[in-house]
Amino acid sequence: MSAWRKSSYSAQGSSCIYVARVPADWQKSSYSHEGANCVYVAAPAPHTIALRESEEPDVILTTTPATLGTFIRAAKAGTFDRLTHDR
Fold first, then answer.
1. Taking the CB of residue 86, how many other CB atoms lie within 10 A of it?
2. Which is more confident, 57 or 1?
3. Percent of the chain residues past pLDDT 70, beyond the cut
4. Helix (H, G, I), strand (E, B) or coil at 51
5. Which of 38, 41, 9 has its CA nearest to residue 27?
6. Confidence category of residue 1, pLDDT binned at 50, 70, 90
7. Which of 25, 16, 26, 21 is nearest to 3 (CA)?
8. Residues 61 and 46: beta-carbon distance below 8 Å
């Protein structure tokens, strides 16, 4: 699919910005209902998962399948529950 490429605005060296074409094959999560607040997922490159939310479609988070799996397992186990209760 899309490949990462170095931005033409990046100079030589290690402080470069890489860009990729936004995937066109977004799929709505089966856990999202009709209406707003839907989560979409795509796989724009090998070993890359892209996530976005319907109300902010230009904000795209990228991660690896392994990292996303770790996050989902932690959320299911209640690891992050205290973050909302301590406020």
1. 6
2. 57
3. 67
4. strand
5. 41
6. very low
7. 21
8. no
- The structure tokens 């998962």 sit at 49
Of 56, 30, 54, 27, nearest to 43 (Cα)? 27
CA-nearest of 67, 73, 27, 17 to 9 is 17
Q: Which amino acid is at 3?
A: A
Please report the beta strands in the chain, taking only residues with DSSP state E, as ranges in sequence order.
5-6, 18-19, 27-28, 39-42, 49-53, 56-63
CB 20 within 8 A of CB 45: yes
CA atoms within 13 A on the CB side of 78: 2
Helix (H, G, I), strand (E, B) or coil at 68: helix
Strands 18-19, 27-28: pairing kind? unpaired
How many helices (H) and strands (E) the chain has is answered by 2, 6
Beta bridge partners of 1: none
